[in-house]
Amino acid sequence: MASHIVGYPRMGPKRELKFALESFWDKKSSAEDLQKVAADLRSAIWKQMADAGIKYIPSNTFSYYDQVLDATSMLGAVPSRYGWNGGEIGFDTYFSMARGNASVPAMEMTKWFDTNYHFIVPELGPDVNFSYASHKAVDEYKEAKSLGVDTVPVLVGPVSYLLLSKPAKGVEKTFSLLSLLPKILPIYKEVISELKAAGASWIQFDEPTLVLDLDSHQLQAFTAAYADLESALSGLNVLIETYFADLTTKAYKTLVGLKGVTAYGLDLVRGTQTIDLVKVGFPEGKYLFAGVVDGRNIWANDLASSLSTLQQLEAIVGKDKLVASTSCSLLHTAVDLVNETKLDDEIKSWLAFAAQKVVEVNALAKALAGQKDEAFFAANAAAQASRKSSPRVTNEAVQKAAAALKGSDHRRATNVSARLDAQQKKLNLPVLPTTTIGSFPQTLELRRVRREFKANKISEEDYVKAIKEEIKKVVDLQEELDIDVLVHGEPERNDMVEYFGEQLSGFAFTVNGWVQSYGSRCVKPPIIYGDVSRPKPMTVFWSSTAQSMTQRPMKGMLTGPVTILNWSFVRNDQPRFETCYQIALAIKDEVEDLEKAGINVIQIDEAALREGLPLRKSEHAFYLKWAVHSFRITNCGVQDTTQIHTHMCYSNFNDIIHSIIDMDADVITIENSRSDEKLLSVFREGVKYGAGIGPGVYDIHSPRIPSTEEIADRIDKMLAVLETNILWVNPDCGLKTRKYAEVKPALNNMVAAAKLLRTQLASAK
Q: Where along this sequence does the record place binding of 5-methyltetrahydropteroyltri-L-glutamate (predicted)?
């Protein structure tokens, strides 16, 4: 039996690619330097998989930013604003699309299905002149071959590419993106032809949209696309890879009926019901790439259970046609457990990162082929048993408190309109109040201070002094800019989830457990291994310190329970909602302590609420019920005069706007600028929103500085659909990743735009 890996992390075990990218963007290193780092990482990844015994090793899963942007480059689908004039797409055009530049904004970025990874959304229309403009897939295949590794080149499938795209600005929203299939398939054929000429024997098309709720027209597009490609694919083994959920019966029938296809990749971790479809009918002579090793979490595989699943499947598809695989790309997990020097041995024994998952996949393949590594399986079984019985996992008091939540919906006693009136009397804010989302730039000096404190190189006294000085600097800057509701800038935090997890029980932390979020941005998700509680206050000292430095309202800054859950590696031994309720109770304690300390505005970020939405509509209602309930638990006990804010990041919120309203926050700040103000269309369509709302007025993920006039124009568009008395003015997201040279002028222009609109509104009365 053979083994296969869907995809692998790109950043490197110690974020080598991140630092190379940022050095290149800062003009401190050359394109050649960046390419050398990338080539070394690719070589190491291919060698590692080959040494582990993996038969089907992927290529072209490496990316300098995002695999969908790579597909856009391959197809030459560059929006005209970037001034690309044809030829092979270089770094200038590629990174301008991803990040924007001094004169034009970036393309929209949104979440990749229900993960915390982001992709750059293609902008398409009837006038796009597609052309073969990036030979990356072929180049990487040849590169691996020159190193003695025969790989499976991976392409984003043509139908998923179009279904993940959006109509470009100026194109009718009703434009059928699938109508572009005949225009892009000739380019896919060129790529396929070059791969065949280079010696490829397999090719993998990632078609993850097959797991979504698709209509018959969309499913027919898959049938048509692969029928068109059939002759070009002749002579190649073709794998269609799906992941992240079950397939519907119709989608499964469409998949196994595709012409010219040799193999089907199925996620059997999140798609447990798909096995039933395989049992009912699997096409004779085809390969099944069985995704039994979880690509999205860090728990060691239950090898005995997975082997049993594979044995069941072997009886259906045949021994020589079954391939052990990961459930999806390992992009979504950390790189290598070997680099974790501070995790204790017990917890470490429960875990497997990408490198370990590669070994697990091959161990399963060998076991099914009659070459079972008895010692490896025995150690795995012992670790599984240890985790189930460990007293560190269970806290009876927490379980009792969470169980007691049943029977109440935990709403605040007064409606939002009355609360806003009470808050305005206390806060006395102007029309169109200005604020920021929380974090301010994290300078090298600030990072050094935190690093040295963690390493016990400076005293706690020196650390506190340095952080207080940074807070004072941020407070003074906001007062100088005349921002209305201030933040302390979060200088004590490296990461919004990690910071809280470090202070909650039931969490473990890694040293190098980095996962790519987008571009060079990496996060280090905490590991929730047990019941969660808050031993002591987490933010009260810093928020109180910041409030003592100003007469203006200072926001207490917290991360909400759903976001902590969705941005962590979550225990898989109980339902996710039970863990979320435990976190909600811990955050509730913190909210009430902040209020007692005199903090009148408290922001509870739920940046990741939307991304946790299940991919299938039939599962939405249950998720939204417990997710929204968890948020309400956190703040149900505060006074009417305490203003509760929440913030949400990049995503399409339009389909869950009623759940957002049901969160019952006093003010919500939300992404808007990079998605062509898609959010505002909800209000144009008549949704009534009575709470405060701050749709972001500029994109902080780009270094570009918007003008006062541009921001004023955005605010004007908001005022066309939102009441003046509920609109807030703020950036899209936190400012941590930006430099002060970008932040100061951008915020200055934002405040100036708000004042300009206030003057216009006053004179219009």
A: 18, 116, 521-522, 567
Q: Which of 502, 503, 489, 495 is nearest to 555 (CA)?
A: 489
Task: Summarize the confidence of residues 545-562 as an average pLDDT.
Answer: 97
How much is the pTM?
0.90
CA–CA separation, 572 vs 563, rounded Å? 17
Buried-exposed string 140-165: b where 16+ CB fall within 10 A, e elsewhere: bbbbbbeeebbbbbbbbbbbbbbbbb
Alpha-carbon distance of 37 to 58, in angstroms, equals: 19
Locate the DSSP E strands across 321-460. Answer: 322-326
What distance in Å separates the CA atoms of residue 50 and residue 52, rounded to the nearest whole number? 5
Q: Which range has the worst mean pLDDT, 150-154, 249-253, 484-488, 616-620?
A: 616-620
**So what's the pLDDT on residue 46?**
98
User: Would you state the pLDDT for residue 436?
Assistant: 97
- Residues within the annotated binding site for 5-methyltetrahydropteroyltri-L-glutamate? 18, 116, 521-522, 567
Tell me how many degrees the CA angle 360-366-369 measures, rounded to the nearest 5: 145
Nearest Cα to 23, choosing from 9, 37, 39, 41? 37
CA distance 221 to 215: 10
Sign of CA dihedral 293, 513, 534, 393: positive
For the residues 544-557, what does the mean pLDDT come to?
98
Asked if residue 726 has pLDDT above 70, the reply is: yes
Q: Which helix (H) or strand (E) holds 669?
A: strand 667-670
| pLDDT at residue number 650 | 56
Q: What percent of the chain has pLDDT over 70?
A: 99
Phi–psi pair at 383, nearest 5 degrees = -65, -40
As a whole number of angstroms, the distance between CA 304 and CA 555 comes to 50
Q: Write down the pLDDT at residue 759.
A: 96
Asked if 447 contacts 737 with a C-beta cutoff of 8 angstroms, the reply is: no
291 vs 268: CA distance, rounded Å: 5
Q: Which residues are the active-site residues?
A: 701
pLDDT at residue 494 in the model: 83
Q: What domains can you pick out in the chain, each with its CATH number? A: 1-54+262-390 (3.20.20.210), 414-764 (3.20.20.210)
Per residue in 669-717, pLDDT tens? 988 776 656 667 777 677 788 899 998 999 888 888 999 999 999 999 8
